[in-house]
Amino acid sequence: xxASTSINNCDSCDGCKYNCCLNSxxxxxxxxxxGLTPTELHSIMNNKRQIKFRAGETITKQNTPLTHLICxxxxxxxxxxxxxxxxxxxxDIIKDNNIFTGGGTVIDDSHxxxxxxxxxxxxxxxxxxxxxxxxxxxxxFAIDLMKLYNSQHIKMxxxxxxxxxxxxxxxxxxxxxxxxxxxxxxxxxxxxLSKQELADMSGMTKESFIRNLxxxxxxxxxxxxxxxxxxxxxxxxxxxxxxx
Length: 244
Prior knowledge:
Blueprint: E1 6-9, H1 16-19, H2 24-27, H3 38-45, E2 49-53, E3 58-60, E4 68-74, E5 76-82, E6 88-95, E7 98-100, E8 114-117, E9 121-127, H4 128-132, H5 139-165, H6 168-184, E10 189-190, H7 195-202, H8 206-218, E11 222-225, E12 228-231, H9 234-243
Antiparallel strand pairs: 1-2, 2-9, 3-8, 4-7, 4-9, 5-6, 5-8, 10-12, 11-12
Helix pairs in contact: 6-7, 6-9, 7-8
């Protein structure tokens, strides 16, 4: 675990011991703990840690050992594939009420991505050794974990396919629509990502992203200020996304 503002036993955090795992509303659709018995659940929860990260801090590092699942309680983080020569690709944004498995769960116990805080983050680290104890004895839990892992894999796979096969305008359109529909759920939306991060989400240079953004604005599809985007013609943006 990397630098953080605080590390606490969850027993010492009001509401933490159960809120991120026992209450399905706190882990959303990715809650994998519903299938555990009370005894199994307490065995896992008694060893988890609540950790706070400041914006910009690394939560997990690519190619390091995978020892914990991460339950994001509040805040927003980016999932980054680090390439050669410092070329990074943001393949997902994760936020409140989400569990991230790390990519190598059960396979090679390695982090295949770097996860870094975009905003201040509060999360729980849950030991994989405790989690894996019940894979062979609790089939419902094993299936839920497999569903979570596969859904994250499919989402990232689709992101990569779109980045490979779409031209720049289609990639920028996908990024703007993803932020509107999946991250902020409002229009217009205020974003905290830098232009470089938006470019990393779109698989292009910062200069190319800004140029395509300006083209959308000149065409009347969006209205863009420094940290705000208003999609004015969503159907046009969807058409650009579909056509790639």
